[in-house]
Amino acid sequence: MRIVKKADFDVPEWRITGFSNVHNHELLKSNEVNLLPAYCTISADDKNRICMFAKAGMSVRQMLRLMELEKGVKLGCLPFTEIDIRNLLQSFRNVDRDNDAIDLIAMCKKIKDEDPDFRYDFKIDAHNRLEHIAWSNASSIHLYETFGDAVIFDTTHRLDAYDMLLGIWIGIDNHGVNCFFGCVLLRDENVQSFSWVLKTFLGFVKGKAPQTILTDQNMWLKEAITNEMSSSKHAFCIWHIIAKFSDWFSVLLGSQYDNWKAEFHRLYNLVMVEDFEVGWKEMVNTYGLHGNKHIASLYALRTSWALPFLRRYFFTGMRNTFQSESINAFIQRFLSAQSQLDHFVEWRLLLIIEIKQEQNKRCNKSSTKSVSKLDH
């Protein structure tokens, strides 16, 4: 359709001067019409259910499949798509962050009033905005008293809706089960913020520093640990290092990449420091890695990740691949739903209770097996 504006005798007038009934694209099939924006609608009831599913930690695909089953429609025939749900969830997250932070602090205070053993602390910046907040509960602190000699402080994830770094303190109990010790949200990553985290956590656990602490290769965190936990042996999680190898070396080494990675694992697992030093030089020569900045950095920090330098320290098996996968799955449970900050903390506290119940079941099963063996 072609429309033009005329102004005869200074009187404006719109006129249709042409019309074509020929489409310049293929018409959609009947089962594809619902993909048009005009047809993609989410009812108020469905919005409420999606919000509830998100709080329960369900993925978007799980939500879609469940709602298809509930409504009795074929796969992909809901009046909205995966993208529509993601956009809706993002709109839930675009809340007033200042008010949200106030709600979070108020919720922590309420929990503290109901449970005197609940611990939390926070810091407000010069503009009266939430800068950092950390919390732990009585059961987590009790677990730390028993199993806190070796810990992981994971700071590799963020709450995207709030652009805050998430730090989680994790350990392993005598059954090899992951333990939650505490959590923190940070606005900034620097030595000062990490120092605040470490001092706050030590305050929660009555000043008991771990014997060993594993982190990623954050140099600000490394400096803060040196300052605040000088008696603890700080080491780097090897799986965080290995996860970067593909980006660092796959293109550079090409067809030699797999062989190089196998050689790296061999060096990593050596017993003697002298063998590591000799083997590292040979590896650099063999693969022509002189001057590579990543190789130089790894070598400079070798006492913080290579087993020949760490075997005399206690890590409760947290450095092996199986345990690292278990720890990563544990962390993902904390990240599976991101909503308002107070809901985030509340949901994590519920998750801790659920994890504790799972641990008790494992302990009971272990005890039952032991009794059965003694009876026979």
UniProtKB/TrEMBL annotation:
Pfam families attached to this UniProt entry: HTH_FAR1, MULE
Output the GO biological process annotations, alphabetical, semicolon-separated. regulation of DNA-templated transcription
Compartments where located:
Nucleus
Sequence ranges assigned to domain FAR1-related sequence 11-like HTH-like in this UniProt record: 41-96
Every copy of the MULE transposase domain together lies at 151-243
GO MF term list: zinc ion binding
Q: Keywords assigned by UniProt?
A: Metal-binding, Nucleus, Zinc, Zinc-finger
Quote the cellular component terms of the Gene Ontology held in the record: nucleus
According to its UniProt entry, the function of this protein is described as: Putative transcription activator involved in regulating light control of development.
Query: What protein family is recorded?
Result: Belongs to the FHY3/FAR1 family.
Name under which the protein is recorded: Protein FAR1-RELATED SEQUENCE
Q: Which source organism?
A: Nelumbo nucifera (Sacred lotus)
